[in-house]
Each structure stands twice: as structure tokens, then as C-alpha cells.
Specification:
It is globular, with a radius of gyration of 20 Å. The protein is mainly alpha-helical and 218 residues long. The chain has helices at 4-25, 32-39, 43-50, 53-79, 87-107, 110-119, 128-148, 159-172, 177-183, 191-208. Helices cover 72% and strands 0% of the residues. Helix 4 (53-79) runs parallel beside helix 7. It folds into 2 domains: 1-51, Homeodomain-like (Arc Repressor Mutant, subunit A, Orthogonal Bundle), CATH 1.10.10.60; 60-208. The longest helix is centred in the first third of the chain and has 27 residues, at 53-79.
């Protein structure tokens, strides 16, 4: 009978292997036999520890969605204690969130790929984690920000779509590190590369949340 440490090690190997394959190939193109082979275990051991392929997929999504949600929620709750109608306060708060989020996405390259794989899934059961773990958070943050900021400050901003657009931007900058870094002619592992990504995200975010739209007829 395996010792507890051996059991944990087996489960972790399964999860790491599944995370990589689901991120790179998607749900349909990944078989449990592939995952078992990558984890160097039998298919029976995989099913014993992690259940069906859908069960395993949900566990993988939870490993990426929940920690990121918790991190963002921590920043949002801290922001709500401040005066978000002060441009400099809002800017500094958002910049701090982007700095930490981008560090997490950089250290976990499969997270952005899993995020975009979810957009391609039509099976509602495969999107359970997204609807149960991510969507409620997004709606909560929208309500909190809308209640904490003057209505005039948000005039001209479609906040729900802005949240979605920024999510796509943030995760998208990490969805193909090799292509983006080559296009920029930069080393993807260099601090300069990460600083450039962060600076761009901060600039775009600031523009999207810049407040009341000026009269376009001028």
C-alpha cells in the first residue's frame, strides 16, 4: 500500500501532466492514456486517483482559476477601501494588480492557454468551473466597482465588456510567448520583456478606464 507521500506525489504527477496536455492540446485531443503515459502510471491508477477525464479537467481548471481569482479579489477588496475617484489612487491600485497577475501568469505558462481553451469549448459541462468559480467573481467585482465609483466617472464605459476585454488582453499577452517575444525581438526570459508587457497592459487599462468620454463632435 502506498505511503501518503507517494500518493500525493502520484496525484501531483497526474495533475501536472494533465495540465500541460490540456493546455497544449485541448480537452478533446487529450486522452487519459496520454496523461497516464506522461505521468508514468497506469490508466487504472489515473482513474483511481482522479476519476473520469471530465473530473480531471475540472480539477485542472480549478488549479488555475481559483488561485488567480483569489489574488485578484484580494487586490479588488483593497482597492475598494480607497478613493477610486482619485485618478492616481486608481492607477496605482490597478498597476499593483497587473504586476502581481503578470508574475503569476509568467510563472504558470499553462494558465493562459487553459483560459483560451475554455473560450473554444461548446460543451456546457466543460465550462462548469468557469461558471461556478469565475463568473460569480466577475459579477461581484462589477457591482462593487460600480457602487464605489461616481456614476459620472463611469460615463461612457461599458464596464462588463471592459472587464472581459482586459481579461483577454492580460492572458493573451502570455498565450504565445515564443511568437510575441520573437515579434518584439526580445528575450522572453528577460526582465525587460516582462516590464514591457506590464507597461503596455497598464497603459491600455488606463485608457479603457479613463473615465467620461469627451464630446466626440468636436
Amino acid at each position: 500500500m502506498p505511503k501518503p507521500a507517494e500518493k500525493i506525489n502520484t496525484v501531483e504527477r497526474i495533475l501536472q501532466s494533465a495540465e500541460t496536455l490540456f493546455a497544449r492540446q485541448g480537452f478533446d485531443a487529450t486522452s487519459t492514456r496520454q496523461i497516464a503515459a506522461k505521468a508514468q502510471i497506469s490508466i487504472q491508477t489515473l482513474h483511481y486517483h482522479c476519476g473520469t477525464k471530465k473530473d480531471l479537467y475540472h480539477q485542472i481548471l480549478e488549479r488555475s482559476v481559483i488561485p488567480v481569482n483569489n489574488m485578484i479579489n484580494r487586490h479588488v477588496q483593497e482597492m475598494l477601501k480607497l478613493d477610486l475617484n482619485d485618478e492616481e489612487v486608481l492607477k496605482n491600485s490597478i498597476n499593483g494588480l497587473i504586476d502581481e497577475l503578470f508574475d503569476v501568469l509568467y510563472e504558470n505558462p499553462n494558465f493562459p492557454l487553459l483560459f483560451f481553451r475554455q473560450w473554444l469549448e461548446s460543451d456546457s459541462e466543460l465550462r462548469r468551473v468557469e461558471w461556478e468559480q469565475l463568473v460569480p467573481y466577475l459579477r461581484k467585482w462589477l457591482m462593487q466597482v460600480e457602487s464605489g465609483v461616481d456614476r459620472d466617472r463611469l460615463l461612457g464605459i461599458d464596464l462588463p465588456l471592459t472587464f472581459i476585454s482586459l481579461s483577454i488582453l492580460y492572458w493573451g499577452l502570455f498565450s504565445n510567448r515564443e511568437f510575441i517575444s520573437a515579434f518584439l525581438n526580445m528575450d522572453a526570459l528577460s526582465p525587460e520583456y516582462m516590464e514591457r508587457l506590464k507597461a503596455h497592459a497598464k497603459e491600455v487599462t488606463q485608457r479603457l478606464l479613463s473615465g467620461k468620454i469627451e464630446n466626440r463632435t468636436r
